[in-house]
Design brief:
4-stranded parallel β-sheet, 35% helix, 9 helices, 5-stranded parallel β-sheet
């Protein structure tokens, strides 16, 4: 049996994640040994968080865990105005690593004056931060089934926004259901789902079309990684998510002739290469790259850390 091993491109770090992790590393170097706190996980990958913690970053759930006057980094997922107000009240030195694409959604929420339906996952840090931009007129829906319970007048204008890391296809279905109920639905000025999420979903869709088994490297709390799993399964491939090669299981590959590997937007590439190495140690050939689109976007670092 001839075996094929394919590696998706693009995969792994997006511009927002790269920026956020660089911010923490730079702030740690500039702090000269003083504690640097990070509110929530800087990005949703446990290996990245562990590596930054080993460098000295102190990860906390809330600002109440940060001493007055200390330095705190806001994660790539963004925060609500209430969190910023608390930081000011505690005299914290804030370094904001919010992804600029999340900030764009926040500004859209602030600009709109009508009720807003946010498509996203309850409890996700990005969703909490976005709802906080307009908490008195924003309503969260996760699926089209949630739309029926919205307390909004179908005859009035209603706008929609979305979490940046959702499945493109899934979001389109929810928007269609919203438009059917609210004929005056207002679209955002540009697509909220980030370029990296869309590109990685397109790449895994093509990967799954040619591979019997797909490995998605990413953490379970990473929304964009979990959406890659969903897209791959929908495209017909047996799909497994792992944090690293340590979680791979030989039975997944028994009788399989083609394997594809990709990773979520918060995954460093050495974890992907660890998966490739694990497979090659068990007789799989060199990986062929399946390139779907080239990415060249980079975000400038915050002025406070340049």
């Amino acid at each position: 049996m001839t075996r094929e091993l394919w590696l998706a491109s693009p995969r792994g770090y997006c511009a927002g994640v790269d920026r956020a992790t660089q911010v923490v590393s730079l702030v740690l170097r500039q702090a000269g040994g003083r504690p640097v706190y990070v509110r929530k996980q800087i990005v949703h990958n446990r290996h990245v968080v562990a590596r930054l913690a080993a460098q000295g970053a102190v990860f906390v759930d809330e600002l109440t865990d940060v001493p007055n006057g200390a330095t705190v980094v806001f994660s790539a997922h963004g925060v609500s105005p209430a969190v910023r107000e608390l930081a000011d009240a505690r005299h914290l030195k804030v370094i904001d690593a919010t992804c600029p694409l999340v900030t764009k959604v926040h500004r859209e929420a602030q600009r709109l004056t009508c009720p807003i339906v946010l498509i996203g996952h309850a409890g996700h840090e990005e969703v909490e931060g976005t709802i906080g931009q307009a908490p008195d007129r924003m309503y969260l829906v996760e699926t089209p089934a949630d739309i029926a319970s919205l307390p909004l007048d179908p005859g009035e204008p209603v706008a929609w926004l979305s979490q940046t890391t959702l499945s493109v296809d899934e979001t389109a279905g929810t928007v269609a259901a919203l438009r059917a109920r609210y004929p005056h639905l207002i679209d955002p000025p540009s697509d909220d789902i980030c370029y990296a999420t869309q590109n990685r979903q397109q790449a895994v869709r093509e990967l799954a079309a040619r591979c019997e088994c797909v490995i998605v490297v990413g953490s379970a709390n990473s929304s964009n990684s979990m959406r890659l799993v969903e897209v791959s399964v929908a495209a017909g491939a047996k799909t497994h998510r792992v944090d690293s090669a340590d979680e791979l299981q030989q039975p997944w590959f028994d009788g399989v002739s083609s394997v594809g590997v990709t990773s979520g937007a918060s995954v460093p590439d050495d974890l992907v290469q660890g998966v490739i190495a694990w497979l090659q140690q068990r007789g799989w050939p060199d990986a062929q790259e399946l390139s779907v689109v080239k990415e060249s976007l980079h975000f400038a670092l915050p002025a406070s850390v340049r």
